[in-house]
Design brief:
By secondary structure, this protein is of the alpha/beta class. Helices cover 43% and strands 19% of the residues. Bound molecules: zinc ion. Zinc ion (ZN) binds next to loops.
Length: 337
Amino acid sequence: MTHRLSLGLLAAALTAALSGCAGAPPAAQKPSEASIAAHVAAATRAAGGDLGEVLTLCKPVPAARPVQDEAADRGLRALIARPAPPPGRAFDNLYFVGGDWASAWAIDTPEGIILIDALNNQVEATALIEGGMRKLGLDPARIRYIVVSHGHGDHYGGAPYLAQKYGARVVMSDIDWTMMETRLEFATPIWGAPPKRDISVKDGNKLTLGGTRLTLYVTPGHTWGTLSPVFDVTWQGQKHRVLLWGGTGFNFGADIPRMEAYGRSTQRMAQVVRAEGIDVMLSNHSRMDGSQGKLARLREAGSGPNPFVIGEPTVERTLTVMNECSLAQRDRFALLP
Ligand SMILES: [Zn+2]
């Protein structure tokens, strides 16, 4: 009896799980205050006690795209002016050389360095990327590639300077190169000029240097051509796999197709995370991945467990929070008059 009952429960659970896998939410609810609350509740459950910063994505965002006016420039200057954290080593072959607001990551290989993102402008590239690398014993002249996650100036602003100085190649998605060439989503003189089109990649293209291979996924949402690289790192000789999410914020206004693309990107990457056992998730804004605190803990501990290794289930939960918040936000936009 008990046995038969538990089998019945198992069957019910399996059916629920399978219908949950079918893609669309079980009951494709019409957007309503209730559907918004349900998505926020699901995000909150997934966030648990450790992903509170990611959960801030669920806060309602303005329906109008932010304009780059004087007030926005003042805000941007204030963000850039915040004292930068010290540069640091996150893994045997991965280094943080970012500011307090935007991050830049350097992957070291025997044949040179792949830099992911180039901060706001030449001043930051000089002080934080070149200066940070030297403090860490890395020679910036070894930068071979600069992968720019997306076409917003807080990530590309320092790229032209570094590319020109060191002959590094700049890698972006074809979609965001085109966006930068035709109509910048945001523009301000605080940022360095956009780089000129160089290496243009499509979803799934690989970039290989010195035995390190990056798979460059196009994860539309934050921009239509946001690149999220996946690559291996080691810590004390042990291999880990990283997803570096290339663009997080919902700062594009009430654009429902784009919000839905964001949600699909998180679902798709959750499948990649499961298939490849990705156990590290990084961001290009340290508030999202807590990298400053994690680097500080590593500095103090010197060795031992690496706080950047959060485990595959937590990487998946992070993507669930992002997905549910994008759905909540989409429903809010759908309810707009
Ligand atoms: Zn951006």
